[in-house]
Amino acid sequence: MTVTVPGPRLLTAQDAATYSEWFASLAEPTRVRLLHAVATAGRSMTVGELTELLGISQSTCSHHVRKLADVGFLLLHKEGTATRVAVNPNCCTGLPHAADVVMGVLETRPCCPLDVPADVTVRPLEPGDWSAVRRIYGEGIATGDATFETEVPSRKTLDAKWLPDHRWVAEVDGEVAGWAAATPVSARDCYAGVAETSVYVGAGSRGRGVGKALLNKQVTAADEGGLWTLQTSIFPENRVSLALHHAAGFRTLGVRERIAQHHGVWRDTVFLERRTAE
């Protein structure tokens, strides 16, 4: 069977022209400082206030204000003889969105790796698997880069929080070699399709594609089972896990700095998300 991987989707000429105009309007340091001053003020400002704040002439300030207003970054209105300047709230999301589009951050990622090893079998977790699942959980804790947990949760705790239809184990030669599970992020109905995911591979089974096989099953089952968003947090030091998740269609949304302490040390996490294609 031949698998055809679609090529990159290019920006339309119209979008490229629009974004180019936006970015070009910021190709001047004073203009960037001016936009930042208005955006962080929390209120509209007069041209006179901006002139004094930035230490520039009124004519220079008016020129840059007009340039920023022409592309829609700023909104202007008269109040008596003064011109008041406010940031366009749509640009607070529109400009970062444009940068994400240009850099490919918002491009649809592939569903999952195509080279899943044939000797790894993934199936639903069964009652007899819990001992192996908790052992593998403990092996992940021992690495120091898998979780903030310092002790393996009880079977009762895990069974209560994991979605029944989204808990999997991987077998190699008839032995459980890893597991994956999804946990609801909220009890609210509007978030019913959003889940936090976990993937663990046993110490003796790493490097042979077990994680890849588990993620393949996890994301395809999520798509088929009505989960529209999967999210996870991974320590930056866990490069293997980050690469696996990127290959499975997850994208990095950001780094949560000093999010929690681990053995008395503040740790960062990389926050990733995967959306269904539809």
UniProtKB/TrEMBL annotation:
| UniProt domain HTH arsR-type: residue ranges | 11-113
| Gene Ontology molecular function terms on file | acyltransferase activity, transferring groups other than amino-acyl groups; DNA-binding transcription factor activity
Q: Which domain of life is it from?
A: Bacteria
Domain N-acetyltransferase spans what residues? 120-278
Task: List the InterPro entries hit by this protein, alphabetically.
Answer: Acyl_CoA_acyltransferase, ArsR-like_HTH, GNAT_dom, HTH_ArsR_DNA-bd_dom, WH-like_DNA-bd_sf, WH_DNA-bd_sf
Keyword set, alphabetical order: Acyltransferase, Transferase
According to UniProt, the name of this protein is L-amino acid N-acyltransferase YncA
Organism from which the protein derives: Lentzea atacamensis
